[in-house]
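In keeping with the milestone schedule agreed at the kick-off meeting, the structural modelling team has produced records for the first pair of proteins. Each record is given below as a sequence line and a structure-token line. The laboratory manager (R.T.) confirmed that both were archived under the project's standard naming scheme.
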Amino acid sequence: MTSLEVRGLVKDYRLRDGLRSTRLRAVDDVGFTLDHGRTVALVGQSGSGKSTIARLLLQLERPTAGEIRLDGRPVARRGAGLIRYRRLVQMVFQDPFASLNPHHDVAHHLARPLRLHHPELSRADVDARIRHLLERVQLDPAMAGRRPHELSGGQRQRVAIARALAPSPGILIADEPVSMLDVSIRLGVLNLLATLQREEDLGVLYITHDLATARHFSDDILVMYRGRIVEHGPADEVILNPKHEYTRLLADATPDPERRFGPAPR
């Protein structure tokens, strides 16, 4: 029953141009709540601040201002509290080619988080969990002995999803999880994430630039523009009745076969 709450989140970067220093505000007063069993899409163009929010939520960077709360409590900076947070909040990265170490096999990638977050498991338990995780992402357990270069892009991303599930998280952050994959396999990976979200009762933050998939796979949509949330609400409401001009521009840029080619023949 995990809940992630963001309050007044701000992230500034210092940029140097010779002797002059300037400030870039990448995230500006962002707030939202992600509850278990819900999928929230964070939508915006490249450079809008979406991935910066992901890094802040993962504690890879510290916010300039604001706070992140897990189950109503501020995130600890160190110690057992931070370890617990990192177990409960997991990430599926955009690039499955870069997020897996080419020198290690699939079993290693899954065993490492299991041993880190579940040290009580025996070697036999870890092996059983690895088989179960691969089956959960619809991969043959025999793939445990393969290295990343022996897998397709879609298979690598499924391994990355299995790795994120290994610590038994409550929150999953998926940062453009299919943008690096062939178009023909994107839907299968998104359907897998939707199935896992329902069956594991996960809270999922789906970061994307694609309003069409955001509407299809999300309960709520947050539209981000220049570091700020400019519109939010239920997915259908945001898509069908956009209030902000930027949301309307995103909707107009979404491919619509009927608008381009006319209705499909019956």
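The second protein of the pair:
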Amino acid sequence: MRTPIIAANWKLHKNRAEAKEFLNEFREKVKYISDVEIVLGPTFTTLDTVIEGTEGTEINVAAQNVYYEQEGAFTGEIAPNMLSELGCDYVIVGHSERRHIFGETDGDINKKVHAVFEDEMTPILCIGETEDERNEGKTQSVLKRQLESGLDGLDPSQVAEMIVAYEPVWAIGTGESASPEDAQEGCKFSRDLVSEVYDEETGEQVRLQYGGSIKPHNAEELMSLPDIDGGLVGGASLDPKSFSEIISITEELY
């Protein structure tokens, strides 16, 4: 059985003091959680604060982005070995905001996936269609392109370890969650594609998250679906109460 994984993406929120305040409340709320893997994804400047503040707990930490080179003349970037040295467990790669605001290509994202693995961290690979692509009936072709490109060159054991997050772009930060049917369909298509490209065992092992306006009120319906193994949570992860509620709801289902 796949272990559910609920991950927070704080995006550009929280300074060090705010991160500490969050942790002081959040640790207490999730200290008895045992059947759900918890991941916090803070800003670069609060990574060390969150890593230090989760020592001795089962909470893992993700960076929100990475560059694929280890060093060089790349002003403003951060290398995978730097994140690994800090103690990051995961790295979010290919988020739609990186693709659409910062112009990251499928090729860039694939290089990042490989770089994350090379430094013994686990990528959370984000895929998802825009509203226009959805309206034009291109959802599956977009997911196929993004997923096949993102996984290119990986062996089955790597794919089985990683996380794929289906995040329809039109549902991110809009308050409009995908319907349970659409969320399940996107995750099932992704799992079936992994099985097709690799093998059925790898498809069954890879964990699929849904992301896009997950809240406590819709968490049970989404997390109970057969091909959804957790969530990548944005806005609701900024509040320790709402984020811990999503985690508790998920644990009750397993």
